[in-house]
């Protein structure tokens, strides 16, 4: 099966004029990085899971986003959605779980390319950690709303 895959890749490269660099760049990340979804992140972090397990999943999520081939705008949108999912109901969590969620939010922010979004996400992480996050707050892609 792997051999057939490589033959297909080579055939595509030949069609593209023999340029293997573009084909390798397009294929390599998908074969080396684990696909991690927003649901995986929320499951590992927002429900009181262990802090190290949460961080490992979040780092894998960020790594996946960075090599996914998506545009910056697409990634920023996914970052906003992931943060919103992580912080949903965070005000009702015990302080130790809020701390895990806040750290996860800070790590997810590193996938964003939008400095305003990153700043807003960091502010959200702070409010989650101290228990003052409001469910009416939001983090959007591009121009995030401030928490509270």
Question: What do you see in this structure?
Answer:
With 148 residues, this protein is mainly α. It has two domains: 1-32; 33-148, no CATH class. The chain has seven helices and no strands. Helix 3 (38-45) packs parallel to helix 5. The longest helix has 17 residues, at 51-67. It is globular and about 35 Å long. The termini are far apart.
Radius of gyration: 18 Å
Can you give the helix content as a percent range? 55-70%
Largest sheet: none
Number of E-state strands: 0
How many separate domains make up the residues?
2
The coarse overall form would be globular
Low-confidence stretches: 1-7, 19-24, 143-148
- Overall residue-averaged pLDDT value: 78
Instruction: Name the helix and strand elements from N-terminus to C-terminus, one letter apiece.
Output: HHHHHHH
Task: Note the gap between the termini.
Answer: 53 Å
- Strand-residue fraction? under 5%
Counted by DSSP, the helix tally is 7
Summing up helix and strand content along with how strands pair, one would put the structural category as mainly alpha
């Amino acid at each position: 099966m792997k051999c057939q895959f490589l033959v297909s890749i080579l055939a595509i490269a030949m069609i593209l004029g023999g340029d293997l660099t573009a084909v390798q760049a397009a294929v390599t990340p998908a074969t080396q990085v684990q696909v991690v979804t927003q649901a995986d992140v929320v499951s590992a972090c927002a429900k009181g899971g262990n802090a190290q397990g949460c961080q490992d999943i979040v780092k894998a999520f960020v790594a996946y986003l960075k090599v996914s081939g998506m545009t910056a705008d697409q990634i920023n949108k996914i970052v906003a959605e992931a943060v919103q999912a992580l912080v949903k109901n965070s005000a009702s969590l015990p302080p130790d779980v809020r701390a895990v969620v806040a750290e996860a939010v800070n790590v997810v922010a590193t996938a964003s390319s939008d400095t305003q979004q990153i700043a807003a996400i960091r502010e959200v992480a702070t409010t989650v950690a101290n228990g003052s996050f409001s469910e009416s707050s939001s983090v959007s892609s591009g121009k995030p709303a401030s928490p509270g």
